[in-house]
Design brief:
- With 329 residues, the protein is α/β, with parallel strands linked by helices.
- It folds into 2 domains: 3-218, Spore Coat Polysaccharide Biosynthesis Protein SpsA, Chain A; 229-328, no CATH class.
- The protein is built from 11 helices and 13 strands.
- The protein has helices at 13-26, 43-50, 64-73, 96-104, 175-180, 193-203, 229-246, 251-271, 275-290, 292-301, 314-320, and strands spanning 3-9, 30-37, 55-59, 80-84, 88-90, 108-117, 132-134, 140-142, 145-146, 149-150, 160-162, 170-174, 207-218.
- α6 packs parallel to α7 (229-246), α7 (229-246) runs parallel beside α9 (275-290) and α7 crosses α10 (292-301).
- It starts with a strand and ends in a 9-residue tail after the last helix.
Length: 329
């Protein structure tokens, strides 16, 4: 089984200097690619001079995460694609548990390793922790992370488990299935496109797994921090996109409820004096309305939809019931 580790990069020379050595050292089973999204720094020159064995793919434009990866992998022939952020340190033998799952479980399409925080290595990392889920209204949460509460890693998720979505910080997917799904949805640009990809795979009957014995360390927010209003815009907009395309049930009631909950989030930002984030939510809703007819066409052409949630409202559990760890849900 051949693996392609594909690292998407945009003006990340410093990150490549820091993290490529661990990837090169611990990924002997794979072919490593750096897919550069039209960087204006010296990223490409650095990789060519310092890591001549790493193959460089130069994308013509910065199309974000989704288009960047779609363009990068379209001609790759390896059996498994690993979509890996450029701010990740990998551990020794991190690929072995992933390979075992793909070899032994033919219906498993996507696998995620354990994501730990590079700056606090005994804690999970926000972007994916120990595998992701969403509630009925499309709010994501993880084993090891609910909203902004991060669990300490004490071995509680050292297992192999079925999950609903795998983190885009490090997502392994069978190449043929990535192409069958027509890759990532480029209208997302960045953020939550991996949830949409995983959801579409689930709707086709494939499994998504978490491998707790494979550990990586993710910085997170190296390209776009949680305090950036653009991230708020992308998260709120793309969540609505994902629900409209993929969710089972009465779409009108679902989207109306979600829009109301987004309004509640806006009030919270108001009390926190985060006016740019309020504007980001309004902008996200405007974009959603503008593209609603396209999303409906995608929904109508999608295969049979599955029940996608285990918890009706993670907002209720977290903010009302004060449950902050996954195992207490």
């Amino acid at each position: 089984m051949k693996i392609a580790v594909v690292i998407l990069n945009w003006n990340g020379k410093k990150l490549l200097e820091q993290f490529l050595p661990s990837i090169a050292e611990n990924s002997k089973e794979a072919t490593i690619y750096v897919a550069d999204n039209a960087s204006t720094d010296d990223s490409v020159a650095f990789v060519k001079s310092s890591f001549p064995s790493i193959i460089i793919i130069e994308n013509g434009v910065n199309g974000g995460y989704a288009k960047g990866y779609n363009d990068a992998v379209k001609n790759l022939k390896e059996d498994i694609l690993c979509l890996l952020n450029n701010d990740v340190e990998v551990s020794k033998n991190w690929l072995s548990p992933i390979i075992d799952i793909f070899n032994n479980e033919q219906n498993t399409a996507i696998v995620q390793p354990k994501l730990l925080d590079f700056n606090r290595k005994d804690y999970f990392e926000y972007a994916g922790a120990a595998g992701g889920f969403i509630d009925k209204f499309g709010y994501p949460y993880c084993r090891g992370r609910i909203f902004n509460t991060i669990e300490k890693d004490s071995g509680q998720y050292n297992d192999v488990a079925d999950i609903f979505w795998a983190s885009g910080a490090c997502l392994f997917i069978r190449n043929q299935i990535f192409k069958k799904l027509n890759g990532l949805d480029e209208s997302f640009f960045a953020h939550m496109e991996e949830i949409d990809l995983c959801w579409r795979a689930k709707n086709l009957g494939y499994k998504i797994k978490y491998a707790g014995s494979s550990e990586i360390y993710h910085v997170g927010g190296a390209t776009l921090s949680n305090t950036n209003p653009k991230k708020t815009y992308l998260n709120f907009r793309n969540s609505l996109y994902t629900l409209t395309k993929n969710a089972k049930g009465n779409l009108f009631i679902l989207i109306l409820t979600r829009l109301i909950l987004d309004g509640v989030a806006g009030v919270k930002f108001l009390f926190e004096f985060k006016f740019q984030h309020i504007a980001a939510i309004i902008h996200a809703h405007y974009s959603f309305y503008k593209h609603f007819h396209v999303l409906l066409k995608q929904r109508q052409s999608a295969p049979n939809k599955i029940k996608y949630y285990n918890k009706r409202s993670i907002v209720l559990y977290y903010y009302v019931y004060k449950i902050t760890d996954y195992k207490s849900l």
